[in-house]
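Marked as duplicate of an earlier ticket. Keeping the data here for the record.
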Amino acid sequence: MAGTFAAFDAHVRARRREYLDELKALVRQPTVSAQRIGIEETAVLVLDRARRAGVRARFERVEGGPPTIVGDTGAGARTLLVYDHYDVQPPDPLDEWRTPPFEPIERDGFLYGRGVSDNKGNLLARLQAIEAYRATIGELPLRVRVLFEGEEEIGSPHLERFVDEHVDDLRADGCIWEAGYRDAAGRPTISLGLKGIAYFDLRVRGAALDAHSSMGTIVPNPAWRLVWALGTLKNESDEITIDGFGDLVRRPTADELAMLEGVPYDEDELRKIHGIRSFVRGLSGLPLKVKHFYEPTCTICGLTSGYAGEGTKTVLPAVASAKLDFRLVPDLTPDAVAKLLRAHLDRRGFGDVEVAPAHGEAPSRWPASSEVARAAVAACRAAYGREPVVYPLMAGSGPMHQVCDRLNIPASIIGGLLYALAAVALRGRYLNLEMDLVLRDILMVAFFTTVGMSASLSLVKLGGKQVLWFLGVSVAGLLMQNLLGLVAAKAMGLNPLIGLLAGSVSLTGGPATALAFGGTFEKMGVSSATAIGIASAIFGIVSGGLLGGYVGGSLLGANRLAVPPNKPAGSLAKAEQAVYSKDPPEEIVPRMSEESASEHSSLLTNIIVLVLAMGLGTLVSRWLEQAGMILPSYIGAMICAGLIRNLDDFTGLFKISQHRMDEIGSISLDLFIVMALLTLRLWEMVHLAAPVLVILGLQILLVLLLCRFLVYRVMGRDYPAAVMSAGYCGFMLGTTANSMACMGEMVSKFGPAPRAFFVVSIVGAFLIDFINALVITQAATLLQ
C-alpha cells in the first residue's frame, strides 16, 4: 500500500502545474452569488470537471435556486459526502487589491485571487484527488458523494429545500466540509462544526430629503438614532446586552474545555496579522479561545448615512442604515435572534428602527468522539506525518446544519436494526445467529443505575410548583397509557402485558425501557415481548417527533397567545445549573490546566459509587424476587441509586457528579441498545403487528388529548405552557431528546420559552424514568 500511495504522490506532483492552471481558469470566472454574476457559467465548468474526475455527476435545482451538482463515485460499505461551493464573496473594496481579483497571480509562493481558498481551491483539490486515486490505485473503496452549491456566500437560501427533496442523493456516514487547511505553522487542521449566522439590515428614516445641517436643532437626525440604537446591543466590555440573548448560549462542557486547552493558538502571530496590540478585554490563553470558539458575536459590518466623499458637505441625512451580523453558537437560531433583537429595540423606544433579516444559518457542532472525526484525525496523521489540530468548530459560518444535521441518523440504533433484519432474512436458510447476553444485561443495569442517581428530590424542590405540576401530569399520563393499553389488549383478546408494552413501557420509557422489560415480560409468557417493545418505541419516537411541534403550534394559534419577553430567571442555563449544582463550578474555565488529577478522581469516585449501588441492588432484587415479584434485574440497583443520591444531596458524603453519571449512563445506554437490538427476534411479532398498531394509534390520540385539555391548562394557559405541551408530546411518545427537538422547533419559530425548557428537562430527563419503572413494575406484579 505504501508503494501504491507513492505512485499517487508522484502522479500529483507530475501534474502540479496542470492542477494549478485548472484553478486559475476557475478563478478567472467571476461567480458572485450576491450579484448573480457567473453562477450558471461556473456550474457548467464544475460539472464538467467532476465528470472528468470520474464522478457520475448531474445538475439538479429547486425552483428559484442555482444549479446544484450532485453525484457519486466508488463503492463500499461506507459513504462519505463531500460538500463545497463554487460561488465567492464580492471582491469589494476593489482599491485594496494589488492585482485584479479575478486575474489570479502567483507571488512569493502563494496564489492570489478571489475564490482561491474559499472555496474553488478546495473544491478542485478534492476532485483532483479522486481523479488521481482512480488513476493510480483504482476504484475508491467507499462511495463518495458530492454536493456542490452556488449560494453559500448569501446564506444558501434554497439549500434546505434542496436537501429535503434529494435525501437519497445525499445520505452518508460522514461529511467532509468545505474547509481543511494547514495553519501558519504547517499543521493540518480539523474543525468539528461551525457557527451559524444571522444577518440583518437596519434602517432609520428621518426627513423626506437630506437637509442642511443647521436644521439639526429641530429636525431628527436618523444617523444619531441609529447610533444610539446600536449602542444598546453591546457594552464597553464587548458583552452582548440584548435581552435574553445569553440564555440561549450553550456553555462548553468540561471535556470540550479540556480539548480546547490543548489546541495550539499563536496569539502573537494573530495580533501581527491583524495589526493589533491586544485582543478584546485583553484576553489570552484559554479564556481567549473559549470566547473565540464558544461565544456568539454581534458585528457592525457597515454603516451608511449622509455624505462620505472627499471634502465637506454640511448635510443632515434623511436615512441611516447599518449592516449587522451575529455569529451563532448552539442553541441560538436566526429566528430566535431576529425576535430578540426586535423586542430589545422596541422596549427601549427604538420602534422606528427597521430590522430586515437578510439571511441566516443555524450552528452545527459534532462530537470529537464520532467515527468520522476519529477517521479524519487518523487520515491527517497518516498523510501529514503529524498530529492535526482539532478545533471544536470554525468561527465562520456555512450551511452545515441544513445538510449534516437534517440528514443525521443515530448509528447505534440503525446498526442494530440492520443486524436484526439480516437475522430475519438468514434465519432458517443459511444460518441462525445467537448472541451472548451477559454483557448486555450488565450494561442495562449500569444505565438504569445512573437513572436512579439522577432521581434527586432536591430538583423537585428547586423547580417549585411548575416542576411538581408537570411531574404530576406526566405521571397521570403514563398511568392512563397503561390503563388504555390494558383495556385495548383485553378487548382484542391479547395478553394484557402486550398492552403495557404498547403503553408507558415503550412510549414514555423509550427503547431502553422497552428492551429492559422485554426479557422480564418474556418470562411472564409474552414470547415476542422485546420485539413488540422496540417496534412500539420506534413508532412512538417517529410519531412524537412529527406531532410535537404541531401540538404546540396549534395551541398557540387557537388561543392567540402572546410571546412574552425573555427573562433570565428560569432559563435553560439555570435548569442546567440546578441539575448539575453538585458539579465543579464555572470557575473551571481558567483552572483547566490543573483539572486532570481531580477529574480522574471524580470519575473513579462516581464509578465506585455506581458499582456499590449495583451490588446493593442485586441483593434488593433477590429479596423482591423471593417475595414473589418478577422484575427487571435493574430495579433494585435503581432504587438503591436513588437512595444514595438523596443521601449524598443531604450529607455530601460521596460528592456525586451528575456530569460524570451522565457520561457513564450515555456510554452504557449506547452499548446496551446496540447489543439488545442485535438480539431482536422480529419474526416472532409478525402476527401481532395489526393489533399493536391499533393500540399505538389509540395512544397517540390519548397523548394529543392530554396535551390540549390537561397539560396546557394545568401549566398556565400561556406561551410557555404551549411549548411544554409540545415537549410533553415528545417524551410521552418517545424520548427526552424528542421533547427537546419539539420545543426547539417552536422556539425557533415563535421565540424563547426558558421556563418550558427548565421544567421539561428536569422531569423528562431526571425524574420520569425512575417513576415509570416503578409503575411498570407494580402493574406487572399485579398482572402476574
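See parent ticket for discussion. The chain has a mean pLDDT of 82.
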